[in-house]
C-alpha cells in the first residue's frame, strides 16, 4: 500500500512539473486547464483500478466454521471452489482436502465476493450461493472421500 501511495505521489509531482514547464498560450488558457483536468482524470482512474484490485484480492478467500471444532471450509469467493481445512495440535493430522475444484463462474468471474456459503441444520451440509445470478449448490463435507461432494440445486 505504501508503494502504491509513493508511486501515486510521484506521478502527481511529475505531472505538475511537466505542466509547469509548458508554455501557456495566453490567447487560449483553457487548453492548459483542460490538459491538467485530463491528467487528473487519468491519475484518478489509475488510482481507482489499484484500490479495486486491492479490495478484490483481500476479500477473495473466506473460512467458514463447521460444528466440528477442527474443521473449516475455505471458499474462494471469486470462483466457488471449496476446500475442507483440518487443523490439529498434531501436525500429521492437519491439511486441506478439495471438495470442489471446478470454477463455477462459467467464465464470467465478476470479482471476489460473488459466492457465499450458508450452513444448514445438518452440520455436514452447506448451501453455496452465487450472489450474481442466484445459482445454488448443495455442499457436503466429511472425513471420507465419498462423503465430500457438491451438486447443483435446480
Brief characterization of the structure:
This protein is α+β, with helices and mostly antiparallel strands and 154 residues long. The chain contains two helices and eight strands. Helix 1 packs antiparallel against helix 2.
Folded structure, characterized:
The chain is α+β, with helices and mostly antiparallel strands. The protein has 2 domains: 2-58; 61-153. It contains 2 helices and 8 strands; from the N terminus they run H-H-E-E-E-E-E-E-E-E. The strands form 2 sheets. Strands 1-2-3-4 form a 4-stranded antiparallel β-sheet, with no helix packed on it. It has a 4-stranded antiparallel β-sheet with strand order 5-6-7-8, with no helix packed on it. Strand 7 and strand 8 (149-153) form a beta hairpin. It starts with a helix and ends with a strand. The relative contact order is 0.11.
